[in-house]
Specification:
Radius of gyration: 25 Å
Strand content: 15-25%
Shape: globular
Structural class: alpha/beta
CATH superfamily of one domain: Dimethylsulfoxide Reductase, domain 2
CATH architecture of one domain: 3-Layer(aba) Sandwich
Number of helices: 23
Strand order of the largest sheet: 5-4-17-16-15-6
CATH class of one domain: Alpha Beta
Bound molecules: ligand MGD, molybdenum atom
Largest sheet: 6 strands, mixed
Number of strands: 29
CATH topology of one domain: Dimethylsulfoxide Reductase, domain 2
Length: 695
């Protein structure tokens, strides 16, 4: 290693390569221009093929976020009632000593009463679950089931193709037909969209399958606006048509799949008419989609599916992903590098997680696991034999659960417990930080080291600090290192610095000198992962039938699992609500960056003209959206983006920036998906009424 981990120089002009830390498939390579210790501008790295010198609007404002006047720059201790937002500044020493002493006392009784809560503020392997995981493992704290985003789809991929592995994103540029299924690529995966545009220019047909007419759907040749939660029914009906018309790759099926006869019988039950009823679309739409897909595959063309998370936020999420994932094996689309499917490539990499996170520090202890999707329930549990001890302390980093977790009425109630000791490591006074006993100022990506893998592309990226920490901010690693010291932990891993950990992530498995030099390395991987089968499943095949699922008492074959909440006209809650991300926010991050918030305007509900007219609602009205979980007010926009019967509540605003201090998650469902124990944000029935009253 030729680089020291010393802070970057305070004088002169230079450029520093980094990696975008955010939860996004694109994981861009960044270049930060620094002048006399101040970051002047954050650009996309032109030398990195996947970034192509272009950043999304959000991250090109990363500077504005880093030097935001409201950034928390000193440790803060609560000085008023829980949630009042009253804090006083304290020294690091005071904060760390008190936190270590309080956690130590709880741990002496039962360490499982302490829960770390973290998610995707950064996807860095070091500032994410690096030193923090070591600390909580040594402590013996409860473990966190990290289910809030990808776990239904990951479980589905695992049981079907063996893991989170798919097409290389760049080969979509060569595809002849692309189905964008449950994704608003222009908003949430911009660098993928470049490849779609190339394919489109070369004559490819692009079809979008999404209840919402997104900016992506508008730019596709065809948009199929199905009801939320109907994807498995659609996929099974496509299989029905593929079978009926013999648009199958019999040889691929015979050599590389398991359970075809059983799946065939299942699919034959799914006539287009049956599926059309569930999807709320026409039989002709299903038949034409099947024809486009089937004929192109049969003709040996490059046929690709970009499947994403849209279909994974409902009861039948896992089954839906399993059903769609069967399609490229049935048709042999995997044979081509520009064919097959991409959901995530997270598992093409094998970072040394055990070395970074040190689960061995648990020794013989086996702490319970708490599901982050139901954090409200967990915090409100008073303790029982089944649950274990009441949660007495919560340490939150890289996440804003009060804003992003479902059914937030319960979450807020849990965080408001006066007897709960809450520490929040943050950049800002988020909705969650408002409930903290201590807020500890954390560094941003411009101020710390990290190493990143991506779930969209397949490169490994390095993040170097471009500037010294702003104010008294400290990195997550540094904070947990300091807490470990105060707890008296002696394992040498607690003294390791960030650059050592960055190197540990891959050891000699990647060329670290190249990584330091360029800021990224490209992993040598096959162009077409499943061209010759070799699926990393127990059978080595694409498992249409999964014995592992059957052994768990689940259906071994994919099927349509209806939503928990299936609104029909005349019901108390007759509208389905989905809450996909707003383009200029990243989950709840960036909501406080004014220039981005100004583009989004205000919290919005999109509604179809017929649903609005039936309620005497006009664009610009304030509406109250409600169900048994709660109610939320925002402004309505009547437009073509909403299909009849479905309203779109764009997320995820900070509660305190909403009309009456709440956001869309006040209404969302915290029941769990069929696989992966994930939340069902988009499986949500509501009613909407005009509410122009001033409160
Ligand atoms: N700008 C921006 N980019 C982001 C994020 C963000 O908040 N903002 N979030 C990041 C994160 S954490 C993630 S996980 C990824 C998510 O990445 P994607 O899964 O691509 O997320 P979206 O772009 O919201 O696309 C989901 C789409 O699914 C649609 N949808 C909703 N319900 C259903 C359904 O039942 N079936 C189908 N077929 N479609 C449905 C929604 O209308 C939406 O357009 O994006 C990442 N990128
Ligand atoms: N209704 C609805 N709710 C949703 C979704 C939806 O589509 N609809 N999407 C869900 C999805 S896909 C996801 S992934 C989750 C995401 O939920 P979260 O993982 O909570 O993500 P963010 O809302 O971006 O909050 C991340 C927080 O981490 C902080 N942070 C960033 N970097 C650092 C760091 O280095 N150190 C520390 N200490 N803090 C840092 C940021 O300031 C930010 O406040 O939200 C989910 N919630
Ligand atoms: Mo996510």
């Amino acid at each position: 290693m030729r680089v020291s981990s010393l802070p970057p120089p305070a004088h002169g002009s230079f450029e520093v390569t980094g990696a975008c830390p955010h939860d996004c498939p694109d994981t861009c390579s960044l270049v930060t221009s620094v002048q006399d210790g101040i970051a002047i501008k954050v650009h996309g790295n032109a030398a990195h093929p996947h970034t192509g010198g272009v950043l999304c609007t959000k991250v090109s404002r990363y500077n504005e976020r880093t030097y935001h006047p409201e950034r928390v720059l000193k440790p803060q201790k609560r000085s008023g009632p829980k949630g009042s937002g009253l804090f006083e500044e304290v020294t690091w020493d005071e904060a760390l000593s008190d936190i270590a002493s309080r956690l130590g006392k709880i741990a002496a009784r039962n360490a499982e009463a302490i829960l770390p809560y973290s998610y995707s503020g950064t996807l860095g392997l070091v500032q994410g679950e690096g030193m923090a995981a070591r600390f909580f493992h040594q402590l013996g704290a409860s473990l966190l089931d990290r289910t809030i985003c990808v776990s239904a789809g990951s479980a589905a991929l695992e049981t079907t193709v063996g893991g989170q592995i798919g097409m290389k994103v760049e080969f979509f540029a060569e595809s002849d037909l692309i189905l964008i299924w449950g994704s608003n690529s222009i908003a949430s995966n911009l660098h993928f969209w470049r490849h779609v545009q190339t394919a489109k220019r070369n004559g490819a047909k692009i079809i979008c399958i999404d209840p919402r007419k997104t900016e992506t759907a508008e730019k596709c040749h065809q948009h199929i606006a199905l009801r939320p939660g109907a994807d498995a029914a659609l996929a099974l009906a496509l299989m029905h048509e593929l079978i009926r018309n013999d648009w199958l790759d019999h040889d691929y099926i015979a050599q590389h799949s398991l359970g075809w006869e059983a799946l065939r019988a299942r699919a034959l039950e799914w006539t287009p008419a049956r599926a059309a009823e569930i999807c709320g679309i026409s039989v002709a739409e299903i038949e034409s989609l099947a024809r486009d897909y089937g004929e192109a595959c049969k003709a040996g063309k490059n046929v690709a599916i970009r499947l994403n998370y849209g279909m994974q936020r409902v009861h039948g999420a896992g089954n839906a992903v399993r059903a769609v994932t069967c399609l490229p094996a049935i048709t042999g689309a995997w044979r081509k590098r520009a064919g097959g499917m991409l959901l995530s490539n997270w598992e093409v990499h094998a970072p040394k997680k055990a070395l970074l996170q040190r689960p061995d520090l648990l020794g013989a202890r086996r702490p319970r696991t708490i599901n982050m999707a139901t954090i409200g329930d967990a915090l409100l549990e008073s303790g029982s034999t089944a649950f274990g001890p009441q949660i007495e302390a919560l340490v939150v980093y890289n996440s804003n659960p009060v804003a992003v977790a479902p059914n937030s009425g319960k979450v807020v109630q849990g965080f408001a417990r006066e007897d709960l000791f809450t520490v929040v490591l943050e950049h800002f006074r988020t909705d969650t930080a408002d409930y903290a006993d201590y807020i500890l100022p954390a560094t941003t990506q411009l101020e710390h080291w990290d190493i990143h893998i991506a779930y969209g592309h397949t490169d490994v990226l390095l993040n170097r600090p471009a500037i010294a920490p702003v104010g008294l901010a400290r990195s997550n690693t540094d904070i947990f290192r300091a807490l470990s010291q105060r707890m008296g932990y002696t394992d040498p891993c607690f003294a390791e610095d960030d650059l050592t950990m960055v190197h540990q992530a891959f050891g000699d498995a990647i060329n670290f000198d190249e990584l330091l030099e360029k800021g990224f390395v490209t992993a040598p991987l096959p162009d077409a992962p499943f061209a010759f089968g070799a699926f990393p499943t127990p059978s080595g095949k694409c498992e249409f039938f999964s014995q592992r699922l059957a052994d768990e008492g689940q259906d071994g074959l994919p099927d349509h699992v209806p939503n928990y909440e299936l609104p029909r006209p005349g019901d108390t809650y007759p509208l389905a609500m989905i809450s996909p991300p707003a383009r200029n926010f990243l989950n709840s991050s960036f909501v406080n960056v004014k220039s981005l918030r100004d583009i989004e305007g205000e919290p919005l509900l999109e509604m179809h003209a017929d649903d609005a007219a039936a309620r005497g609602i006009a664009t610009g009205d304030t509406v109250r959206i409600f169900n048994d979980r709660g109610s939320y007010r925002c402004t309505v926009r009547i437009n073509q983006r909403a299909r009849p019967g479905v309203v779109n509540g764009l997320g995820v605003w900070w509660r305190k920036l909403g009309l009456d201090g709440s956001n869309v998650n006040q209404l969302t469902n915290d029941q769990l998906t069929d696989m992966g124990r994930a939340p069902t944000f988009y499986d949500c029935a509501v009613q909407v009424e005009r509410s122009n009253a001033i409160y």
